[in-house]
Amino acid sequence: MSFSGSTAGSRTTRTSLEFGRTHVVRPKGKHEATIVWLHGLGDKGSSWSQLLESLPLPNVKWICPTAPTRPVAAFGGFPCTAWFDVGDISEDAPDDLEGLDFSAAHVANLLSTEPADVKLCVGGFSMGAATALYSATCHAFSHYSNGSPYRVNLSAVVGLSGWLPCSRTLRHRMQGVNDAGRRAASLPILLCHGTDLSRWKGDDVVAYQHGEKSARILSSSGFQNLTWRTYEGLGHYTIPEENDEICHWLSANLCLGGT
């Protein structure tokens, strides 16, 4: 799978899209945090729920929704599960703001019914990570790109092998919103990505430079509480070392109880 190709794909009317099945992993201990975890392009929520259930985080509730099936420009308009439309990950590629708002609002709705004393988080892999990072910017701005209010108070964001949508305009937009810098600076973000080696290509779907540049732009735009982790030779998948990092990072930044 590659994201290179036409960027002219169709924009499906949002009202015609339906999210797939949502899988929930209940906490085995005291419920201290809820994390909506978003899968990658063409995947589904059940693919991640089994892995997340095995992590030593008994105080976390995981919500794993499935994206709508929609035409995707990267596949020549062929339909698959996707949080938004994407053609090419590059500086010149257009951002599907309508699709991003649509999915970020779905994530916010899933979190909005959680208990008031529970910390709310969003994370994801690949396109799911991109959607999670877009949610982080909505949190900083307190609204979506269409102007509707974003009402969820996020406590942490995790992105694996992903990229930052709307990266070209983030710095400028941050300067024009009161308190956006304060909200951005206080939001912990963990980003992980594979790097290239001479013997291994690394991530051949979302290239390392896209992940590294996303981290750099977020930091320079005011998201100062950002942790950037790299794994030599890691392709477009996750490994136990990366999962261990997620567990340690979440436990520390959410002040979770013992494993």
From TrEMBL:
Coiled coil (UniProt feature): none
One MF annotation (Gene Ontology) recorded for this entry: hydrolase activity
Residues annotated as domain Phospholipase/carboxylesterase/thioesterase: 23-252
SUPFAM superfamilies noted in UniProt: alpha/beta-Hydrolases
Stored Gene3D superfamilies: alpha/beta hydrolase
InterPro entries cross-referenced by the UniProt entry: AB_hydrolase_fold, PLipase/COase/thioEstase
Alphabetical list of PANTHER family matching this protein: ALPHA/BETA-HYDROLASES SUPERFAMILY PROTEIN
Protein name (record): Phospholipase/carboxylesterase/thioesterase domain-containing protein
Organism: Anisodus tanguticus
Lineage: Eukaryota, Viridiplantae, Streptophyta, Embryophyta, Tracheophyta
